[in-house]
Amino acid sequence: MCNKVLALIGLISFPMAVIGQETGYRATYKVDGAVISEENRSNVSLENVEMNSSVVYATNGVNLILTRMRMNKTAGASTDDDYRKTGHNAAFLVDGGSKVTLEYSDVNSHVLHADGITVVGNGTELDVVEGNVTCSRSESAAVNAVGGGKAKFEKTVVNTYSSQNPSFLAGPGGVIEVNQISGQNSGQASPMFFSQGDITAQNCRMSSSKWSMGSVDGGKMTLTNNTLKSGGVSGFLLYGPKDRSENGELNLNKNTLTVGDGPLFLVTNTSAAISMEGNKITYGSKDLMIVCSDDWGVKGKNGGDAVLTVGKQALKGNIKVDSISSLQLNLNKGAKLTGHINDAENRCAKVKVVIGAGSKWTAKGDNYITSIKFEQPLQKGLKQLKGKHVIYYDPADPDNKALEGKEYKTGGGVLRPLK
Fold first, then answer.
1. Where would I find the beta strands (DSSP E) of 279-413?
2. What is the pLDDT of residue 225?
3. 8 Å CB contact between 115 and 141
4. Mapping DSSP to helix (H, G, I), strand (E, B) and coil, where does residue 380 land?
5. CB 131 within 8 A of CB 103
6. Are 2 and 291 in contact (CB under 8 A)?
7. What's phi and psi for 97, nearest 5 deg?
8. How many CB atoms lie within 10 A of CB 22?
9. Pair 338, 310: CB distance under 8 Å
10. What local confidence, expressed as pLDDT, does residue 284 receive?
11. In this predicted structure, what is the pLDDT of residue 243?
12. Nearest alpha-carbon partner for 276 in 334, 194, 327, 218
């Protein structure tokens, strides 16, 4: 897996119309809160074909309600390399502390470098109810929130069709909350959720045929009670610069997850914490988790550092951690892991395992870990290790002090010091 990863009424088109003064970016329909504080509009279809211009632009603290609108961005790719940070060229752009509600409406982008909806800036908020968002060209997120912008979506259909087309992108400082979303992504490097900020999703039914369900690049992602399916790379990809102050965070609760290709988790060139409880998971790969170096970062320094905490959850599959990566695996009460952790090739990898009361690890073959700690007394803890196995541990590691460098019989195999 490592080194294989490296992504109403009829249409009315009319000239630039501005409510308010000519400030900021251009749009077919622009509402400027510096001149008009509130505006309602409904049952209009708008199109934009100009470069570096939006269909609808709400700015300068305006309060705007749009109902049964249709926005089409059909031409005019952006020449602005920072279009994701600014929202420049998005079909629908909201910034400057504006408060916008979009109801029963369609937003369509068919242009390179033109996100469907972008919400930018502290205090800027967008609520979308029962709409449709579609992006068909590459490098265009359906929804983008960044720089303190907050976007909330409910009962909305979101589809993307090309490469680098995430459904929901929370850039640095962006917040996205979604509920009852459906849709699919069909392009390479097009996850359903991509977080450098904060994404919360619940009760969604979505798929990504060629990429991950979620990509976490130093952000936070919390998924609850969703039905999600991925078709490539991994179920979840966690990566990004290690020198960033924020570590990635992924929380999975009561989801139904189907992984068509790759491990459930792939962690590389980042530090990340993953927690999970009550999920139903199926995947074709034999690997549950891979923590490794890959194509991102500086060679020799681009391993992953992960913490995986498992609650009331059954997991099957192998865990692989390469020599410049690390993993702490916490099996809390109700956790059941069936799988192999590292072979002799990666015996130098730093892998720490904590076996909580009421948890179980069923292993096969030879396993190589750095340390193992039991929350229960040693003899009870050893019985929580099932399967025909040899688990090697490092007797010099301080976390193994209670083992005294000895060999022990477990609930089906042997716990043995590595010499």
1. 280-283, 287-291, 305-310, 313-316, 318-321, 326-331, 335-338, 350-355, 360-362, 365-368, 371-374, 385-386, 389-393, 408-409
2. 98
3. yes
4. helix
5. yes
6. no
7. 75, 20
8. 9
9. no
10. 82
11. 64
12. 334
Roughly how many angstroms between the first and final C-alpha of the chain, as a whole number? Answer: 30
Token digits of residue 285? 């790969």
DSSP state of 402: G
Instruction: Provide φ and ψ at 31, rounded to 5°.
Output: -120, 115
- Would you state the pLDDT for residue 246? 66
Q: Retrieve residue 329's tokens.
A: 């695996």
- Side chain identity, residue 281: I
| Residue 353: closest CA among 382, 322, 380 | 382
Residue whose tokens read 């309602």: 40
- What DSSP element (H or E) covers 381? helix 378-382
**CB-CB contact of 142 with 111 (8 Å):** no
The per-residue pLDDT for 294 is: 80
Residues of the chain falling short of pLDDT 50: 4-23
Length of the chain: 419
What is the reported pLDDT for 150?
98
Which residue do the tokens 């979303």 mark? 181
Q: Are 331 and 297 in contact (CB under 8 A)?
A: no
For residue 243, with 0-12 CB atoms within 10 Å meaning exposed, 13-18 middle and 19 or more buried, which class applies?
Answer: exposed
Q: Which two tokens stand for residue 395?
A: 């007797």
* The two three-digit tokens of residue 262, written as one number: 């790759």
Question: Residue 56 is which amino acid?
Answer: V
Encoded tokens for 88: 């420049």
Percent of the chain with pLDDT over 90: 84
Spacing of C-alpha 75 from chain mean position: 29
Distances in Å between the Cα of 406 and the Cα atoms of 309, 343, 361, 373, 389 are 27, 21, 20, 14, 16
Cα(165)–Cα(149) distance, integer angstroms:
20
| pLDDT at residue 2 in the model | 58
Among residues 264, 261, 257, the alpha carbon closest in space to that of 232 is found at 261
Instruction: Name the phi and psi angles at 399, rounded to 5.
Output: -70, -15
Whose CA is closest to 149, among 124, 117, 172? Answer: 124
Q: Please state, in angstroms and rounded to a whole number, the distance separating the CA atoms of residues 180 and 340.
A: 37
8 Å CB contact between 111 and 85? no
Question: What secondary structure does DSSP assign to 184-245, as a single string?
Answer: EE-STT--SEEESSEEEEES-EEEESSS-SEEESSSEEEEES-EEEE-SS-SEEEE--TTSS
What's the token pair of residue 327? Answer: 């993993």
